[in-house]
Amino acid sequence: MVRSEHGCVHTKRHRRRRCAPLTLLVIHALLCAVLPFSPASAYGIALATTSADEGDWLWPVDGPRAVVEPFRAPAHEYGPGHRGVDITASLGTEVRAPAAGVIAFRGVVVDRPLLTIDHGAGLVTTFEPVESALAAGHAVAEGEVIGTVSIGGHSAPGTLHIGLRVHGVYVDPMRMFGEVPRAVLLPCCEPL
Question: Which superfamily, per CATH, for 67-177?
Answer without folding.
Answer: Glucose Permease (Domain IIA) (2.70.70.10)
